[in-house]
């Protein structure tokens, strides 16, 4: 009897030890944004379901993270088991074979529930290479009180002509109220995100089907001319240094009549704790020019598993959990529906509870209005709405952004900026061996 | 009259010195002030920000989100370790260059300095591959080695200039008294060069503490120092100024305090040999 008890206890101990030994630690690299930080706080929920998987978080600023994970994945360094990557990296890395396919996620993951626009940008040759955690588009945020004072009504889907008229009427420079705030800071993810999306609605494009740059087209000229006119006449001073955060500060302090930027801004500008105009904000789709494309972008932060990871199975379980319907419900139960990561699943937008969240519908409509595989009016050889998913784009996009930022600052004309952008892009694309 | 002019001059010079010091210190002061505000207040116009209520909420949040002590210990080990290792290598090297210069000594000194002129990112991929193959990624040992190599040219140069100020006759006298090379360096040269060595040590600890390229690229979590702690609080889209300021203040506080207490030593070392 004693022997048996001992043997049993011994067996239990061995099992316990081996379970402990089986516990795996996966390293997850992520960006610093509200939804990601919230997920880190929900780790007890994950561990309740998967006690054998420990998660080590590495949170970094977006540009630092991009440089670091790119170095690691390109050298197969194996430092990370899960990486947070954007819709820009996913198709490029997927094509290189650097990412583990997620086609074999369990049936209850319901991959068909992912929003088609988002899923399309993450699929390479039929393989889902990353799972979307949070998606965003861009839209118009405007001051309802100033719009009323100007005697105008913002339509749900405004045109650029209306935006110009409203900007003019809302501007009151003596009172430091500027009709429109837009990005001006140079960078492929800064002013070029806005301008590329705006250009799409003007029928402009980065490249034609032969990969020839198109900055010498009348459509690009119209885009830049209108942008400069809007910003010079009705924009805040020093706008060539303004990015998302600078415009957010201006809008929250009541200095902008309209602001066209990421849908995620809606939760900031309507937060009474930080915004002086929280109860006076309306939303509308990004403007168009009647050509069938709106000037809004599409971006998602996604979880992907690098091919160099030694812990693919554990990483897959984590990715499936973090991007599941169940996760959305967990966040809703703990922090309320307004804090659920938006823009990834159809079922979320069908949920009557979520429909009550202001800006939920506008976010979904904005995302659906963008198609990364058909971003502009004409057919183009690239994927991406506000970017071109080729490795050379980061460098080219930033250099072109510097020209347009200089035009906004008044140090060069629109024509010179476009000519410089055309010359630079042509040179870089030839050097990179396009057309391929 | 002359005295009056000189007093006026003194006042003027003092005022200019204070103004310059204030301008240099201003960004740090502003960071510290901002760290005691809420996120909403931190992005207000400068005057409104100053007038808004003070709070510790950013510090509380940074404390709960990050493991400060781990990052801090990593920074201490990496900066001290690399500086001490660099000194051990550089003292004999500087001795040789200062007291037994060869025909090529000047060239060697220039060549060492030239390694600092290359942009670090140029060797990122080869370094990353070497670190991967030797299993040094995300280890303190790896960072100590890298930072030692990066700062070695500066350490050698600084020590070389200090050693040049020491009369060679004293070392000769020690040799006459029968001191061998080891005793000569340890018991005669080093004690005389203490101010120089101390300021080299302090300056390099500061340089290593602030190094933010390799420490970010070659670490993930276990060996990540305070530079990564700061980088985790910045974001292109979001409200983060107050938390970032709090994290920055916590990261620079130790080195500020160290600098404050050792400023006499630091100044003495930096001006060592300037007045004869």
Output the keywords:
heterodimer, A: 436 residues, alpha/beta, D-Maltodextrin-Binding Protein, domain 2, 2 domains, eight-stranded mixed beta sheet, two-stranded antiparallel sheet, 45% helix, B: 276 residues, mainly alpha, MetI-like fold, globular, MetI-like_sf (chain B), cell membrane (chain B), transport (chain B)
User: Main sheet of chain A?
Assistant: 8 strands, mixed
How many domains of chain A?
A: 2
Order of helices and strands of chain A: HEHHEHEHHEEEHHEHHHEHEEHHHHHHH
Q: What is the highest CATH level, the class of the largest domain in chain A?
A: Alpha Beta
Treating each run of at least 4 consecutive H or I residues as one helix, how many helices of chain A?
19
- Cα gyration radius of chain A (Å): 24 Å
Proportion of strand residues of chain B: under 5%
**Fourth CATH level, the homologous superfamily of the largest domain in chain A:** Periplasmic binding protein-like II
The succession of helices and strands of chain B, N to C, reads HHHHHHHHHHHHHHH
Question: Mind explaining what this structure looks like?
Answer:
Chain B: It is a multi-pass membrane protein. Chain B: Keywords: Cell membrane, Membrane, Transmembrane, Transmembrane helix, Transport. Chain B: It is found in: Cell membrane. Chain B: Belongs to the binding-protein-dependent transport system permease family. The complex is a heterodimer of chains A (436) and B (276). Chain A folds into two domains: 165 residues, D-Maltodextrin-Binding Protein, domain 2; 214 residues, Periplasmic binding protein-like II (D-Maltodextrin-Binding Protein, domain 2, 3-Layer(aba) Sandwich). Chain A contains 19 helices and ten strands. About 1% of the residues of chain A have low confidence. In chain A, strands 1, 2, 3, 6, 7, 8, 9 and 10 form an eight-stranded mixed β-sheet that branches. Chain A has a two-stranded antiparallel sheet with strand order 4-5. Chain B is mainly α. Chain B folds into two domains: 57 residues, no CATH class; 166 residues, MetI-like (MetI-like fold), CATH 1.10.3720. Chain B has 15 helices and no strands. Chain B is globular and about 70 Å long. Chain B starts with a helix and ends in a 6-residue tail after the last helix. The interface between A and B is large, with 44 and 30 residues.
